[in-house]
Structures are given as structure tokens and as C-alpha cells.
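Q: Given only this backbone (328 positions), what sequence would you predict?
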């Protein structure tokens, strides 16, 4: 039987631990998806969010709501008519299904943000180039239901949603130029998620834009850092080619890296943890399964919030500091 003094010590320790936890902010986790194409993965991610009370940010590429037959409606800055690095919707039916997922996800508390349209490298783009691509993104989405022969199915509020709710931006390849922030301000974006940071880091403000960066996280037997994104894992693990025979091994490595990055922040300063994914099941879905395991384990914890970038902006508040220089 435990002595009264031992019981008192345990009680005081519990109170002390609780007080320390209460002094810390919630651990924020932001899971994002670039491109947001495959309709099966739209459904899978939405089902995961509903099951775990997690909310995600979808960085949508606008050519994925343009049917291939209508490809010549789009031209990127300095690009050829009808050219996109990530293709187009197979047909209007596929585009309509994707539009439905976009609207339903928005209603479930997820966030739709911009990943431009044709996924081109903007490292040499001017302010005007970025502004053109950003304007095209909004115009394509505003006309998308009509263009895909479903004008009568356009939800009430769709136009206002496109005009006023899409406030986040991520540049393809994380490739930016000096003109990006000015173009983002002109287009009405409030945050950018195009940086890469040495580790989890608080966002910084630059000219009124809050700038987030995906972190480098330790991974693998030698704990070498890499960007916390599925594609970077895919390249490291198998050279960018699917190796289904090692899918379980790659899943285990990815999960271990994700969980270690989470645990370090959760036990430490509670810096938000950001992880990025695509609507592609690389290496047999290894990285999606690792992500789903992490989300299922941590998003229901009382002092953890798996949130969109826009929600994070509100929750972080004054913790975002003025930028002093590069994200790296």
C-alpha cells in the first residue's frame, strides 16, 4: 500500500506537470496536399479528417478543373497555349467530381488555397507574371462549373468563396522570385507557404504576408535532414521510382521521422509542425499510410490541434515575427 507521503508526492508531481502543460500553447500540426487531383484521394483525405477531427489545407492547381478538351483555355506566363506540367482533368465529369470535393471539403472545415495553375517554375517570374497566373487561378475557378457543363450545379456562395476565402498560396517546387510577395499582396493573399526552413520554425511576416516554411526533419538510419514532404522521401528512398517491395519499410521510416519531429516539438517549444503531401501514392502509398498513422495518433490529443494554415495564422497571432532574412 502506498504511503500518504508517496501519494502526496505523486499528486504534486501530477499538478506540476499539468501546470507546465497549461503554460504551453497547443501543439499545432498542419497537413497539406499539393495539386489536389485524384478524386479517390480527395475522398480518402476527407474521410480521415472526419475520423480524426483534423482539418487540412489543399493547395489546388487550377488546370485540374479544366477538362483536357478545353486545355487551350490556359496559358502560363511565357508558356505555350494548352500546356501544363501536371496535365488537366481527363474529362468534364472528372472535373465536376473534383469541384464537388472542393466544395464539400470547404464545408467540412478544410481550407482551399492556391498552387497556381500549371505547376511551372516561377524562379524568374516578375510581379506581373505571378499576378497573371494568380488571376488565371481565380478566373478558372469562378467559371469552372459553367465550363464543365454544370452551371446549374454551382453551389450558392461559390463566387464569394473564390473571391474572399482563398487566402493562402504555395509556389510550385517551392521556387520563388523577388516579385512573389508583391504579387501575393496584389492578389489578396494573406499567407504564403513556399519556404523551406532548417527545422520547424515560427512563420515570419514580410510586407504584410505571413510566410511559412516546410521544415527539414531528420530521417533514416543516419538521421540526415530532408524536407518534410512525401516527394522528398520518395526520391531519397527509391530515387523517385516506385519500389513496391520495400513499401512497408519506407512507410516505417517515414512514420518514424514524422513522429520524432512531432514528439520533439510537443515536448519542447510547441513550434507548429508542417508536413506536405501530394495526391499520388508514391512507393505503394507508403507516405500516405505514415501520415494517416500520425494523424490518427496525435490529432485527438487534448493539447494538439491539427489545423489549416488559415486557422494556424489566427492561433499563432503575435508569435509570428517580422522577417529578418531568408527562411534558410
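A: Predicted residues:
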Amino acid at each position: 500500500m502506498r504511503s500518504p507521503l508517496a501519494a502526496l508526492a505523486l499528486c504534486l508531481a501530477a499538478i506540476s506537470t499539468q501546470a507546465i502543460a497549461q503554460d504551453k500553447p497547443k501543439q499545432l500540426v498542419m497537413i497539406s496536399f499539393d495539386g489536389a487531383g485524384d478524386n479517390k484521394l480527395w475522398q480518402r483525405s476527407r474521410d480521415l479528417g472526419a475520423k480524426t477531427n483534423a482539418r487540412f489545407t489543399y493547395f489546388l492547381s487550377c488546370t485540374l478543373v479544366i477538362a483536357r478538351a478545353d486545355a487551350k483555355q490556359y496559358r502560363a506566363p511565357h508558356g505555350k497555349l494548352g500546356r501544363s506540367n501536371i496535365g488537366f482533368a481527363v474529362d468534364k465529369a472528372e472535373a465536376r467530381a473534383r469541384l464537388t470535393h472542393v466544395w464539400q471539403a470547404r464545408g467540412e472545415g478544410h481550407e482551399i488555397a492556391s498552387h497556381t495553375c500549371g505547376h511551372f517554375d516561377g524562379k524568374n517570374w516578375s510581379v506581373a507574371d505571378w499576378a497573371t497566373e494568380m488571376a488565371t487561378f481565380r478566373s478558372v475557378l469562378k467559371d469552372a462549373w459553367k465550363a464543365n457543363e454544370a452551371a446549374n450545379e454551382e453551389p450558392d456562395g461559390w463566387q464569394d468563396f473564390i473571391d474572399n476565402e482563398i487566402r493562402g498560396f504555395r509556389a510550385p517546387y517551392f521556387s520563388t522570385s523577388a516579385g512573389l510577395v508583391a504579387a501575393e499582396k496584389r492578389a489578396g493573399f494573406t499567407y504564403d507557404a513556399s519556404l523551406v526552413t532548417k527545422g520547424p520554425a515560427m512563420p515570419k511576416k514580410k510586407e504584410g504576408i505571413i510566410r511559412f516554411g516546410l521544415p527539414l526533419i531528420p530521417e533514416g538510419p543516419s538521421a540526415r535532414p530532408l524536407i518534410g514532404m512525401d516527394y522528398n522521401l520518395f526520391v531519397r528512398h527509391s530515387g523517385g521510382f516506385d519500389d513496391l517491395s520495400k513499401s512497408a519499410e519506407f512507410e516505417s521510416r517515414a512514420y518514424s521521422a514524422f513522429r520524432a519531429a512531432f514528439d520533439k516539438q510537443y515536448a519542447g517549444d510547441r513550434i507548429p509542425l508542417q508536413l506536405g503531401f501530394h495526391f499520388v501514392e508514391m512507393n505503394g502509398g507508403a507516405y500516405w499510410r505514415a501520415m494517416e498513422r500520425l494523424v490518427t495518433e496525435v490529432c485527438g490529443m487534448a493539447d494538439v490541434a491539427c489545423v489549416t494554415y488559415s486557422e494556424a495564422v489566427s492561433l499563432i497571432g503575435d508569435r509570428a515575427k517580422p522577417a529578418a532574412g531568408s527562411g534558410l
